[in-house]
Amino acid sequence: MKPLQKIRFVTTILWFMSAAYLVYKYSLHAGYWEHPLYITLFLYLVILLSKKGFNKLNVFIFLFYIAFGMWFAMDLFLILTGGFSVG
Question: Is pTM beyond 0.70 here?
Answer without folding.
Answer: yes
